Amino acid sequence: MKGHKDTIYKTVYQYNQIPIAAADMERLQEIARDCREVKNYVYDRFGGIRSLPKLYPGYTVQNEMTRSGLRERLGLPAVYFYLSIFDALGDIKSQWARAKSRIEKNIRSNPNLTQEDRHYLRFVMKQSRCFESVLAGGKPDLSGSWKEGYEAVRAGVDTRRLDQYLRRQVRRHLDRPHTDAADGFPAAPKGYRYADHGIYLTMKESRRRLFIPLTDNNRYKTQIYVCLYPDEGRITLNIPIEVRQRHPAGYEGEIGLAVGLKCMFVTDQGRIYGGSYLEYQSALTDYIRESLSRRRRNARSNPGTKKYSAKKARLEAAMHAYVNAEINRMLETERPGVLYVPKLPAVSKAGVNKKVNATLSMWQRGFVKNRLNQKCRERSVELVEVFGKGISTQCSVCGAEGRKEKERFFCAACGAELPERQNTACNVLNRGRALREERDSDRTDEGH
């Protein structure tokens, strides 16, 4: 499909073969804490509006961090120090992207803005030097076609009012990142070496490496991320690998999906995938609730967490395997070109009983969403999220408000009657198509 890359990244995992000694785990945790300090330093120093020109491509930040003396004070190897800097820069850029997305949404929906106002604001946000100058309160210094374009879009609009509006929006929506987590750190290829059926990791001590035996003998030459689990004496190596993206024949058309806890997916045609998902989620939730209750009652005589963690891991693995299998089955059966899903709201407690509330709060919808996104990318399927508010109570035939009763949807306005989840999936499809038409119309307007 147009716009998709030919390769994508997947994450593979490696595990330590034997428990890591407490002293060695402390050395790894010290690196993780130092990396956290580096990231927070970058967040505080370069996360604001004034540092926006320094973020791309980021070498200015790297040079300033080198001169700061922070690495020497921490005694952190360069293979960890500079990766932490660029990880922090990535987080800051993501915050800017999210802020811009919210601002663009407000620009579209603000009734006090004319079409000319919107053209001007979109131009400013698109042109980086122009955007930076406006946020700093100055006049953009542009040349060539960009200068001509700026003069064209600013004609007939109140630039002072619009620039102030844009600055207010940025202040309202831009969040400065911060992290308290020290549960892992990135490592460049120069920071590790595979040998002896394990991996040697660079330590803070000069010319010292920590050897960790691994459960497999695979070897990689890429940036990795070391996840630490000190309570369990283990680590996980997260390794991104590049794989070719598939473009299977016959993947075309559009479908809408209703996403839920009782069953994972229902299509706009009423087909169900992941109908047993709640059984897997409930088994995991019930085990955690019962185990935690027993642990609280017998805190003093608790023998440890090894047995609890092992069974919890088995239940999670079974659920994850089921999710992967059902997503594969759905994609191979439906073979969509475009897949629409609703943006799910924050989990709220149902107020029925503690068991229902616990199941809702532990619903691993983030894992489901990530796996769906990954598998769509592998097959070049476009995944589009649509606005989800009121999507289950709206009639997919006429758009009027209806009622739900015993998993059926009824519309008094047009007489429509169909399964509740299928009605939701049809609304997802309708909103997805409307969103694409709106975006195509905006691109056409910008082209003129």
Give a quick precis of the structure.
The chain is of the alpha+beta class and 448 residues long. The protein is 49% helix and 17% strand.
From the structure above, extract its key features.
4-stranded antiparallel sheet
How would you characterize the overall build of this protein?
The chain has 13 helices and 15 strands. The chain is α+β, with helices and mostly antiparallel strands. The protein has a 5-stranded mixed sheet with strand order 10-9-8-11-12. A 4-stranded antiparallel sheet has the order 1-7-6-2. Strands 3-4-5 form a 3-stranded antiparallel sheet, with no helix packed on it. Helix 1 packs across helix 4, helix 4 packs across helix 8 and helix 10 crosses helix 12. The two termini are about 25 Å apart. About 0% of the residues have low confidence.
Biggest sheet details: 5 strands, mixed
Overall 3D shape: flat
Radius of gyration: 26 Å
Nearest-integer average pLDDT: 87
Strand content: 15-25%
Number of strands: 15
**What level of helicity do the residues show?**
40-55%
**End-to-end separation:** 26 Å
Which strand order spans the largest sheet, edge to edge or round the barrel? 10-9-8-11-12
List the helices and strands in order.
EHHHHHHHHEEEEEEEEEHHEHHEEEEH
Structural class: alpha+beta
How many helical elements?
Answer: 13
Low-confidence stretches: 348-352
